[in-house]
Design goal:
Layout lengths: L5 E10 L2 E11 L5 E4 L6 H9 L6 E6 L2 E2 L5 H7 L1 E3 L12 H12 L14 H13 L16 H13 L5 E5 L7 H17 L3 E5 L3 H7 L2 E6 L2 E6 L1 H5 L2 H8 L6
Parallel strand pairs: 3-8, 3-9, 6-7, 7-8
Antiparallel strand pairs: 1-2, 1-4, 4-5, 9-10
Helix pairs in contact: 3-4, 3-5
Length: about 250
């Protein structure tokens, strides 16, 4: 078995008397496409916020590729290869899809200020941007379109591309299909599957749509009141009595 890419050890967070996370212990293996689910208030966002660095835990440890990162700021985690996307589309609407991806590519090379000047001739940068856009299905003509002119689904896909530009070892996607129509959902699901199989990035998805979770995931983690109540394959989660009782209910009835 390969070494874990991310370990969570006894992670806890409280907001007054509200338990958002309680002694969470989890290990993420490289290349395993994982979904984190749970009802509203289960602690999903709190967990992702702690892992990405935007929220400090009250206790516990976060270890990324053998290095403790519990108290590292967000930008240092990104530099190490731990990234996330958000529920709300987060792109530069007046810039092209190409430029949206080019900015983080330049930033990763410590040349972000070059974006203020022409980057013609920066062939390595262009190749990397074009490779990312091709991988997410926004190559060709779509790469020249402004982000605001893209469909909502394409904007969500572009956001994944922006995250990939940081060359993440692990990427947390927070409800990547939010607001999409059925056709767009199918497309981004297939895209995430393809990207996961490449092996460059380990994907962890926070999602409410159970059809998406069951069709996409190799592993599912279920949270309830800040506690992990289920962790396993799709079939194991479907047959878990505690999960059925507090979350899935009739959705998994035979």
């Amino acid at each position: 078995m390969s070494n874990p890419i991310l370990e969570i050890q006894k992670l806890s967070k409280f907001f007054g008397r509200v338990v958002a996370a309680l002694n969470i212990n989890l290990t993420f293996e490289p290349g395993v496409l994982t979904s984190i689910i749970g009802p509203n208030g289960a602690g999903k966002s709190t967990l992702i916020n702690m892992l990405s660095g935007s929220l400090s835990p009250d206790s516990g440890r976060i270890v990324f590729e053998g290095r403790e990162i519990t108290h590292l700021p967000v930008h240092r985690r990104v530099q190490l290869g731990l990234c996330r996307s958000f529920q709300v589309v987060n792109v530069f609407p007046q810039l092209s899809a190409f430029d949206n991806v080019q900015i983080p590519v330049l930033a990763m090379q410590n040349r972000a200020r070059r974006f203020l000047r022409p980057v013609a001739g920066e062939e390595s940068v262009h190749r990397e941007v074009e490779d990312i856009l091709d991988r997410i299905g926004l190559g060709g003509e779509k790469s020249h379109a402004t982000a605001s002119a893209l469909s909502h689904g394409d904007q969500r896909v572009l956001e994944v591309g922006i995250a990939l530009a940081a060359r993440p070892r692990i990427l947390f996607l927070d409800e990547p299909t939010a607001g999409m129509n059925p056709v767009e959902r199918v497309r981004i699901l297939e895209n995430i599957k393809t990207l996961s199989k490449e092996g460059r990035t380990t994907f962890v998805i926070v999602e409410h749509d159970m059809d998406i979770v069951f069709s996409l995931s190799e592993r599912i983690i279920v949270l309830h009141h800040g506690v992990v109540i289920g962790d396993g394959t799709t079939e194991e989660i479907k047959s878990n009595p505690k999960v059925r009782e507090v979350y899935l209910g009739e959705e998994v009835s035979e």
